[in-house]
Amino acid sequence: MLGEYNVNQQLEALVNQDQYWRSSYRQYVQQQIGTDDWSSPAYSQNNQRLFADWLRLVGHTADDPFLDKQTRAMAKPLIEKHIDEIAASPDDSYGSVKYNAWLLIQHMDDDVQFQRWFLQHLDPNSTTPASGPNGNNPYQMLHDRVNINNGQPQQFNTQMSV
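Above: the chain's sequence. Below: its structure in token form.
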């Protein structure tokens, strides 16, 4: 059986891959419109064009599943196999096994059933802030993400519109 350290090392490598592309896109947006504030009018008016242009720049198209689907293909079975270890971890702070699993699942928008399943393993009363604008915890952020993906309103107002 893999210990939490080994599971977390694998999840952390996948998080690094996931965040590399998101960071690259954020830098591109900053260069193009002078801000990486997702709530800015400049971004909201140009987000689809910016994303399409960035994909072409990095050699991909919107139909190419190079980002989330590739990461999910590796992360999902790992998380499913080790969910008991992940869920039992009391630590959901940045870089922990629970945080890394949450961050990957947060971006699996075309697998809402998996997001909903993982949500059951998070503590809704956690005092650990994730990366939300108001210091929201991972449960709140994933809860809103699941609601959006099901066409429902956000409860905690943690998600931007992309």
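Residues 4-33 form the longest helix (30 residues).
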